[in-house]
Structure formats: structure tokens, C-alpha cells
Specification:
- The complex is a heterodimer.
- By secondary structure, chain A is of the alpha/beta class.
- Helix content of chain A is 32%, strand content 19%.
- Chain A has helices at residues 21-29, 74-90, 94-97, 117-124, 132-139, 142-150, 165-178, 195-203, 236-242, 270-280, 299-313, 323-326, 333-347; strands spanning 6-15, 18-19, 102-107, 156-159, 184-191, 227-235, 248-257, 290-293, 318-321, 349-350, 372-373, 378-385, 389-396.
- Chain B is of the alpha/beta class.
- In chain B, strand 11 (325-333) and strand 12 form a beta hairpin.
- The longest helix of chain B is centred in the first third of the chain and has 16 residues, at 56-71.
- The relative contact order of chain B is 0.18.
- The chains are: A alpha/beta, B alpha/beta.
């Protein structure tokens, strides 16, 4: 056992399922979801698809004073909302973190991209557009923004590993603590719905015109979503010194490349298997009680992921897909799903994979059809990303 | 702690591709001027039919990566022979693809959104393309955090090697300079001419460029990474840099930089900023790391252009100094520094 174990002491989330973990979990356990056409922007894509928006006003405005306004940066609003919940649960206030060596590790995609249509439209017409959008882009990269807002002095990193960014951000937080770079890390992911990603995924023809159906034989694509997930990740020693309640342990992390295709996973899932084996370390796969799968509901993802999970953990492994409640939140997905994985370990229960009814033999695994009891010992959360990247977290329950 | 050495360096900069081009530019004091980053030579490593659809940032990153592998004595097809990871750092991401996607939807309508441009606009695609071209299947991380980018990327690489996750890491740091970014820099007050850090009327100019490193266990021909520290205060950075023979400041040429770096210089006889050679880059500390590595391998303090020396000069350095330790300092944000120390014994 490592002398410097890495534990979770706070959780926060904001997604279409709810503002705050309790609210979101309640929605999920009740099997409710309402994907709908986007209302925050107008778009006429090749393939319209419902999305999971966060309604304005459902989340609490953060008491953390940002160094600059965030009202035009939903990514940051969402992140601050989830952070406040996570800090509260961890028994920490922003004031007591200020000036300390606290790391910030955040995954995102939209939050670090200069894709302001109005600005670019002005530029291409030679109109010398104002630089407000550029200044926002420069000032609002999530991890530096948060570190500055809280006056922290630890390492800072925004990861853009596409759809696995949130998982990698938690993995990176674990690395920093193991390396002794800091004792506490604000780890997570955040992303907002935007016209650019909506049209982009539509152009790839991998969105569904109805609610997504992970691992179901009828699945035909994903739904986009938005949100943020935050985990307070710290060394066990730090948690003990603070007398903080340990919610879970980030026991392992693995990352790997397929080196196969830019947008399609390796058909044999070799990269995902490698990431899983790395995350498992010396653990026997049979010890794992459940997997919170990436489960986008695209044909290729679910087929490859399902087969690989069956090969590593056995075909009877309990698998849940939570994207029918949140949509695919891209850079936030891995973080939100890590939060849900910890919640599954804490409560010993998982929600149904909403909408699932027809098993697909090609996926091999069969996800939860109803609320399901699970062992509170060990769980895995997986992410597969553009670029042929795979990531996995091994999370242990708090133990006796 | 297990030492991590620099075993190969590859650069694709305005002064040319490869460390030899960088060395010549540093020796002769050639400034970046208006030169574009040359991407010729990629086909020497990877067949053209496999690279023709890469966007400029991906091409530049792949070229620098291949050059670093060659410098480490490896052919591209040998990159996957041992467990290898990829860390890619970029503050601005693939700009041409980002704006090409916007061009399509603004110019031709939503239904004309390009799946190709969208895919390539994702920041981790350059790393993915390196993986595809070189067959690398280890861990990958793309970091994008402006002034924090170089330190964060290095910390990932160090962890993976020291923990035995991989034997080596291909670390690539770079930026593409698009027409949009040229416009932005001009509007922010950047100059059209040469970069002049710390000088009265200092100027900065957006450039593209990549620096790549093959990092692995043990000392390399370029020495070893003695330390990588992030989030240091001014006083801490000055203290950590004090034991080095030479301090390189990754100054881009902005007016506010004098105040940011001034206290770091106090304990140094030799302080330089080579950005006139490579341009103003958010990932400038990565290029300075390449310069530091080259200085250590050659046991030379490069003359650089006239504006490169803040304290001392290459001439005074060459008279009495064969550098054994070089520090690279970069500003992360207000009052926060990255400090990278490289040593060669």
C-alpha cells in the first residue's frame, strides 16, 4: 500500500439531472430525464438532436468572488457552482485555501477554445472586431481562473483530452499528490453546450434524434449535455489531519492511446483494456463491483467498450451508463461520472440505464435496467475520447 | 528520486527545423523577424500520403517530434518499440481548424459544418496524430493552461517516467500562429518587427513554433531535468534559480515583463532572453528548455541577438563559464512563476 494514499473528501456536481449531487442522484434514481431541442442557441444542423441543458437559475450562484465576471462564461459558472458544493462537503472554505499549495486540475473542451462566432464573423469581414471575446478566452481558462480566484499556489493544469478530459484531470490530481507536489487538489471537469460543438457532432453524424440509449440494440447516437463535476482530492494524511470524512479513495488511474483512428475506437478495445489494466494495478478484476461506463450510445463506442469490459471483468459485470440523465458533457463527463461512481459506492445503489430494454449481443454486457444494489467496495469509471484516447479510474469505497 | 534525462531535442521554429538550425540562429544571433515556421522535411520521416490532411499545428508538432526522435537516435518506426507516452502542451490549440470550422458555418450555413475541421479543432488531435503516425500506444495528455502549460506538461512526463508507467515520454510544446492571432496581437499592441524583451519600447510579435523532447530515465546527452516547480512566488523562484550558471527568462517582449522578472535577476551574473530568436510564444519556456539543453550539451552560452542579454553577455560567459546548470523561468500569472532547472554533470 502506498504511504501517500489519495482520497476524496468532497463532491459537487451540476448537470441537467440536477443542481447538486443530492438533487441529481434523486432524479437519476427516479429514472427521470428530459432531453429537448436546444433553447440557448439557434442551429439548423444536418441532424437535429435533443440536448441536456442546465436551465438558467436552477443552480446556486457561487459565493466565491471571481477575479472577473463569469456571466458570459457558463463553463466557469458551472464549475464554481460544483466547487462550492464540493468544498462545503469537504469542510473547507475558500478563505482557508487561499495562499496554500492547493492544485487545480480541470478538464474541458469548450472552456479553452476561442470559438466565438461573432468575433470571427467580424474578423473575416475585415471589421476590426473588439477584443472582448479574446480577453474572456485568455482570462477564463478554467484551471488558471480557479487558482487565481482562490489565491492558490499549487500546480495548475487544464486538460483537453476531448471526452476523457475529466477522468484525466482526476488522474492527474492523484499523480500530483503521489508526487508530493501538494496535499489537496480541486479536480474535475466543466463544459457548456455551444453551437459549435452541437453543429460539430451533428456533422459527424453521431448524434441521435431521440433520447440516447447506451448499450441498447436500438441505439443510434449520443445527446450532448453540459455541466460540471468537482472532486476534492487529497492525501489521506491531509484528510486525517483535518479530520475530514473520507468518501472514497482514488486507487488507480490508467491512460492509453489506440494508435488506430482519429474518431473511431480500436475495434478490439486494446487501448481501453490497457488503460483498465493500468488502473487496476495489482487488483483482481473480480474485486470490482461495478463500472460506470462511458456509454455514449454510439454504435462503435458501446460495442467496443462493452466487449472490452466483458473481457476484463467478465460478461456479468454490473455496468451503468449515466449519459441518459446528463447527456454527453464532453470535458465534464469523466468528472461527473467519477462523482456518480463515488456516490454509487457510498449508497450501494445505482440508477437504471434509462431507456435500456433491448440487449445488443455485440455489446456483450447488459447495463442496469432498474435501480440496482451494488457492493460498496471497488468501482471503475471509464472514458473513451476523440483521438483514440482511453482513460480509467479505479475508485475504492471508504471502507469500514 | 529517479533522474529523468533529455535524450533528444527537436524544434520547428521560425529559424528552421531541427536543433542545428536553432544552434546556428543562437550562435549567429539571427532573429525570427517575419519568417514563417518551415514545415519542410516531415516527408523525410512520414510518407506524404499519411500527413497531407494534417492541419498546421499537427504537422508542426509531428515534425518536431520526429526530429527529437532522430536526435535521440531513433527512427519513427522505433518510437513504439518501448512503452512511450505523449504529452502535448499548447495554450491556443489548433487555430486554423478552429477558424476553418467557423468559416464554414458562417459562410455556408449550419448544414455545411465540416466534420473534418471540427475533428481537427479538438486540442488533443495533434497528440493523436503523433500516436497514429508513430504507433505510440502509451498514455497521452494534452494540457492547455497558458502560462502554466509548460510546467504542467513536464510534471506529467516526470511522473510517468519516475513511476514506471512508461520508459520514455515524447513531450511536445507548441503554438500555431494564425492570421486571427496576428490580428489579436496587433490590436493588443504587439509590433510588426523583431521581438525585444525588456528593452525600452519593447515589442512582441506572435509566432508559431514547436519544441519537442525525448525524455527518459537516466542522464541524457543534454543532461537531466533537475527540478520542475510550479506556482512559485517571486522570492521562491529567485532562490531556486540562484544555483544555476545561467538564467533564461521566457519573456515574450510585453511591456509588463520587466517588473515581473526583475527580482529573479538579482543573484545572477548571466541572464538572457532568447525570444528574439524564436518569437513570442505562450509556450516559450518550452523553447527555452530546448536552448538550455543545447547550452548544456555544447557547454556553450550562445551569443544570441543583441537584445538577448539582460545581465552579462555571452562573451563574458564564454570567457569564464562552461555551463553545468541552466534555469528557465516563466511567468504563470500575477506573482507566480515556473522554474525549470536542467543540469549536466
Amino acid at each position: 500500500m502506498r504511504p501517500n494514499r489519495v482520497v476524496v473528501t468532497g463532491l459537487g456536481c451540476l448537470c441537467a439531472a440536477g443542481a447538486g449531487l443530492e438533487s441529481a442522484w434523486k432524479t437519476m434514481m427516479a429514472g427521470r430525464a428530459r432531453p429537448a431541442p436546444p433553447t440557448k442557441f439557434r442551429a439548423e444542423p444536418k441532424r437535429p438532436s435533443p440536448v441536456f441543458e442546465i436551465p438558467g437559475g436552477i443552480f446556486r450562484r457561487s459565493k466565491i468572488s471571481p477575479p472577473r465576471p463569469v456571466d458570459k462564461m457558463p463553463c466557469l459558472e458551472y464549475l464554481l457552482s460544483a466547487l462550492e458544493e464540493a468544498l462545503e462537503q469537504a469542510g473547507l472554505s475558500p478563505e482557508e485555501l487561499s495562499g496554500r499549495r492547493v492544485g487545480v486540475s480541470i478538464g474541458t473542451t469548450v472552456g479553452c477554445t476561442l470559438n466565438d462566432e461573432g468575433f470571427y464573423a467580424g474578423f473575416r469581414k475585415g471589421l476590426e472586431p473588439g477584443l472582448d471575446p479574446v480577453e474572456r478566452f485568455l482570462a477564463c481558462n478554467p484551471a488558471p481562473f480557479l487558482s487565481e480566484a482562490l489565491g492558490l499556489r499549487g500546480p495548475v493544469c487544464t486538460i483537453n483530452n476531448a471526452c476523457s478530459s475529466g477522468t484525466d484531470a482526476v488522474g492527474q490530481a492523484r499523480e500530483w499528490i503521489l508526487d508530493g507536489l501538494c496535499d489537496l487538489v480541486i479536480a474535475g471537469g466543466t463544459d457548456e453546450l455551444s453551437r459549435v460543438t452541437y453543429l460539430g457532432f451533428s456533422s459527424l453524424l453521431n448524434t441521435s434524434e431521440r433520447a440516447c440509449l447506451p448499450f441498447d440494440a436500438r441505439r443510434d447516437g449520443l445527446n450532448l449535455g453540459e455541466g460540471a463535476g468537482v472532486l476534492i482530492v487529497e492525501s489521506r494524511r491531509s484528510a486525517a489531519e483535518r479530520r475530514a470524512e473520507v468518501l472514497a479513495e482514488v486507487e488507480g488511474y490508467g491512460s492509453s492511446l489506440d494508435a488506430y483512428h482519429v474518431t473511431a475506437p480500436h475495434p478490439e478495445g486494446s487501448g481501453l483494456e490497457s488503460a483498465l489494466r493500468r488502473a487496476l494495478g495489482d487488483r483482481n478484476p473480480a474485486e470490482v463491483g461495478f463500472v460506470n461506463a462511458h456509454g455514449t450510445a454510439t454504435d462503435s463506442n458501446d460495442k467496443v467498450e462493452g466487449r472490452t469490459l466483458a473481457r476484463v471483468f467478465g460478461p456479468g459485470i454490473t455496468v451503468v451508463g449515466t449519459k441518459p440523465y446528463t447527456g454527453h458533457t464532453l470535458g465534464a463527463a469523466g468528472a461527473l461520472e467519477a462523482v456518480f461512481t463515488v456516490q454509487g459506492l457510498l449508497t450501494g445503489c445505482l440508477p437504471a440505464t434509462l431507456g435500456f430494454s433491448e440487449p445488443d449481443p455485440e455489446c456483450v454486457v447488459v447495463p442496469t435496467r432498474a435501480a440496482t444494489s451494488v457492493a460498496r467496495t471497488l468501482a471503475v469509471s471509464t472514458s473513451l475520447a476523440f483521438g483514440g484516447h482511453n482513460a480509467a479510474l479505479l475508485i475504492a469505497g471508504p471502507g469500514p | 528520486m529517479k533522474p529523468v534525462g533529455i535524450h533528444g531535442v527537436g524544434t520547428a521554429l521560425a529559424c528552421g527545423a531541427g536543433v542545428d538550425a536553432l544552434r546556428i540562429a543562437l550562435r549567429e544571433g539571427r532573429e525570427a523577424g517575419r519568417s514563417e515556421v518551415g514545415l519542410e522535411g516531415l516527408e523525410d520521416f512520414i510518407p506524404a500520403n499519411r500527413t497531407r490532411r494534417l492541419d498546421p499545428l499537427a504537422r508542426m508538432a509531428l515534425l518536431a517530434a520526429c526530429l527529437s526522435l532522430r536526435d535521440a537516435g531513433l527512427r519513427p518506426d522505433e518510437a513504439s518499440g518501448r512503452p512511450t507516452g505523449i504529452v502535448f502542451g499548447t495554450a491556443l490549440g489548433p487555430q486554423e481548424s478552429t477558424f476553418s470550422f467557423l468559416e464554414d458555418i458562417i459562410g455556408s450555413g449550419d448544414a455545411c459544418a465540416s466534420s473534418f475541421a471540427f475533428t481537427n479543432s479538438v486540442h488533443n488531435l495533434p497528440a493523436s496524430n503523433m500516436s497514429l503516425a508513430l504507433g505510440i500506444r502509451g498514455p497521452m495528455r494534452t494540457v492547455t493552461a497558458f502560462g502554466h502549460t509548460t510546467a504542467a506538461a513536464l510534471l506529467s512526463a516526470l511522473h510517468w517516467i519516475r513511476e514506471g508507467v512508461v520508459e520514455r515520454v515524447l513531450l511536445v510544446l507548441g503554438e500555431e500562429c494564425s492570421a486571427v492571432m496576428e490580428y489579436v496581437v496587433r490590436r493588443f499592441g504587439g509590433g510588426e518587427g523583431n521581438v525585444r524583451p525588456f528593452a525600452p519600447g519593447c515589442t512582441y510579435r506572435s509566432r508559431g513554433g514547436c519544441a519537442a523532447f525525448v525524455l527518459g530515465g537516466g542522464d541524457g546527452p543534454y543532461g537531466r531535468l533537475a527540478s520542475v516547480e510550479a506556482g512559485l512566488s517571486e522570492a521562491e523562484a529567485a532562490e531556486r534559480a540562484a544555483g544555476s550558471d545561467l538564467l533564461l527568462c521566457a519573456a515574450a517582449g510585453r511591456a509588463d515583463e520587466f517588473n515581473l522578472y526583475e527580482r529573479l535577476w538579482a543573484s545572477h551574473r548571466l541572464v538572457g532572453a532568447y525570444s528574439p530568436v524564436y518569437g513570442s510564444l505562450p509556450t516559450g519556456p518550452g523553447v527555452d528548455l530546448a536552448v538550455a539543453a543545447l547550452s548544456l550539451r555544447e557547454r556553450t552560452v550562445f551569443a544570441g541577438p543583441g537584445g538577448a542579454w539582460i545581465k552579462g553577455s555571452a562573451v563574458s560567459g564564454a570567457e569564464g563559464l562552461l555551463p553545468g546548470a541552466v534555469a528557465v523561468a516563466g511567468v504563470e500569472g500575477p506573482g507566480r512563476f515556473t522554474l525549470i532547472r536542467v543540469e549536466r554533470r
